[in-house]
């Protein structure tokens, strides 16, 4: 009987060692818009796969050394990138991405915050948003996709570009909401999924739909990834139906799948 117990114990130990040896560290370079969703979903993926996710944060674009393209260019290792879809296209063109590995993950609208405790302005209509921005002492926006839209298009659409240019400021790398929480700026714009996790601010709402800008987030396996299969498995999980409730809870929208055009029936 004692031999049987020893044999079972040895089997369990070997099984544990084998499982540990098979587990992989999947390194994900990720920009802020999808980070909150992945942080919530990572434990589910790790429990199912046995692999471990390592997050490396950085903007999808911009001049900061922490930006994902800059990290890859200087040789930092990653298995997966998750970032703004347009920026991912540039990585695809430069052959940083494994061909055919791109997966659409979520759509992210732009929203606005004020410092917690400050009066809550109305931004439901274009005219309300216009008045709010004209009255604001200062305006902050990001250096990524949402900020580029705010600075180059939103102000023009509202007809206030000249009036706000002296008080509108681009925030590099740092989450916009954290600067608003410190009282450095009166209002802040960024993707909703990047605003909601930050303490010390009040989320006012999304931009009115007719001046809204949706940022697509997508992921892909890096061309030089050490763990390609595990990276693909992660992206498949993040784009699955079971992940959508969590994704929407972080302020993003499920990617709408375009339905094929139905062909007319052939007359026999």
Automatic annotation (TrEMBL):
<dbReference type="GO" id="GO:0015689">
    <property type="term" value="P:molybdate ion transport"/>
</dbReference>
<dbReference type="InterPro" id="IPR050682">
    <property type="entry name" value="ModA/WtpA"/>
</dbReference>
<protein>
    <submittedName>
        <fullName>ABC transporter substrate-binding protein</fullName>
    </submittedName>
</protein>
<dbReference type="GO" id="GO:0030973">
    <property type="term" value="F:molybdate ion binding"/>
</dbReference>
<keyword id="KW-0732">Signal</keyword>
<dbReference type="Pfam" id="PF13531">
    <property type="entry name" value="SBP_bac_11"/>
</dbReference>
<feature type="signal peptide">
    <location>
        <begin position="1"/>
        <end position="23"/>
    </location>
</feature>
């Amino acid at each position: 009987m004692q031999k049987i117990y020893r044999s079972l114990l040895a089997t369990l130990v070997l099984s544990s060692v084998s499982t540990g040896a098979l587990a992989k560290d999947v390194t994900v370079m990720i920009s802020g818009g999808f980070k909150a969703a992945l942080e919530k979903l990572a434990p589910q993926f790790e429990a199912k796969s046995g692999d471990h996710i390592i997050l490396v944060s950085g903007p999808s674009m911009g001049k900061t050394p922490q930006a994902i393209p800059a990290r890859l260019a200087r040789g930092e290792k990653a298995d997966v990138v998750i970032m703004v879809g347009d920026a991912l296209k540039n990585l695809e063109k430069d052959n940083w991405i494994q061909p055919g590995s791109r997966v659409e993950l979520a759509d992210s609208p732009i929203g606005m915050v004020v410092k917690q405790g400050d009066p809550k302005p109305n931004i439901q209509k274009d005219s309300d948003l216009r008045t709010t921005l004209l009255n604001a002492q200062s305006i902050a926006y990001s250096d990524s996709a949402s900020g580029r839209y705010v600075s180059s298009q939103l102000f023009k659409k509202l007809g206030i570009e000249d009036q706000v240019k002296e008080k509108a400021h681009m925030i590099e790398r740092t989450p916009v909401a954290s600067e608003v929480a410190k009282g450095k700026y009166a209002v802040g714009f960024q993707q909703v999924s990047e605003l909601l996790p930050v303490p010390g601010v009040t989320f006012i709402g999304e931009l009115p739909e007719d001046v809204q800008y949706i940022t697509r987030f997508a992921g892909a396996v890096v061309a030089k990834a050490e763990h390609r299969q595990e990276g693909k498995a992660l992206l498949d999980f993040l784009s699955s139906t079971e992940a959508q409730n969590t994704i929407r809870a972080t302020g993003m929208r499920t990617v709408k799948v375009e339905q094929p055009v139905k062909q007319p029936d052939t007359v026999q």
